[in-house]
Design a protein that fits this description.
With 79 residues, this protein is an alpha+beta fold. The protein has one domain. It is built from three helices and three strands; from the N terminus they run αβββαα. A hairpin with a 3-residue loop joins strand 2 and strand 3. The N and C termini lie far apart (41 Å).
Length: 79
């Protein structure tokens, strides 16, 4: 199913993940227009941008959000 717009329903579900990780809602940018592909990245001043993927099932995408945020925020130490 193609996601045409990000609604409060999706944002609240994202907040449930980011809140559990201790990330302030003020440190998030969630554009209301999904893209393909979606992306997750740190932008200026440590702000986390979360762009939903319009072509991926939201529930499936959401299950991968926490590990993706952890990988981005806590990159592995070099050997």
């Amino acid at each position: 199913m193609t996601l045409k717009a990000v609604t409060l329903k999706e944002i609240e579900r994202i907040f449930s993940v980011t809140d559990a990780l201790g990330i302030s809602r003020e440190a998030l940018v969630i554009p209301l227009r999904p893209e393909s592909p979606g992306r997750l990245r740190l932008i200026k001043d440590g702000i986390l941008e979360i762009v939903l993927d319009r072509d991926q099932d939201f529930e499936q995408w959401l299950t991968g959000l926490e590990p993706a945020i952890r990988a981005l925020m806590d990159p592995p130490e070099p050997d």
